[in-house]
Amino acid sequence: MARINSIWDEMRRMQEQMDSLFDSYFGIDPYKNPLMLEGPKGRGELVESNYRLPLSDIYETEKEVIAEIEIPGLSKNDIKVNVCEDSVEIKAETKKEKKDEDKKHGVYRYERNYSGFYRQFSLPSEVDSEKSVAEYKDGVLKITMPKLKIKETKKKMLEIK
Q1: For the chain, which ranges sit under pLDDT 50?
Q2: Confidence (pTM)
Q3: 3-class SS at 81?
């Protein structure tokens, strides 16, 4: 039986057991970003994702909410942005294909690489999705979303009957 030197050794042992449990159950490293996909038997299974979380800044001014997301190395056609009243979703995907053939030497190779960025944010204020604009320049996506004007509501004290 292993001797426990301190409470921290015990905590480390428990952490290793939990990691092992997650690894054996899901078949992946639980600290990586998994995506839920449909498996061959119609049930969801976790698989590792090639999507990365881009560096992002979200801030608001008096009239608008602005999101700046770093997505280097893509063209603006590779980026999709969905804006709702209370959230924004950014998905950027690149596909690279390489085909090498040398029939003389019997070499055939066809490689595909898919990777991208994905991020979804809740917004601090409700925005007008119809008037929102996105601009991509020098690897930075800037989304400007005007805030919705909130109608002032009058408070009324109700008498309980």
Answers
A1: 29-48
A2: 0.57
A3: strand
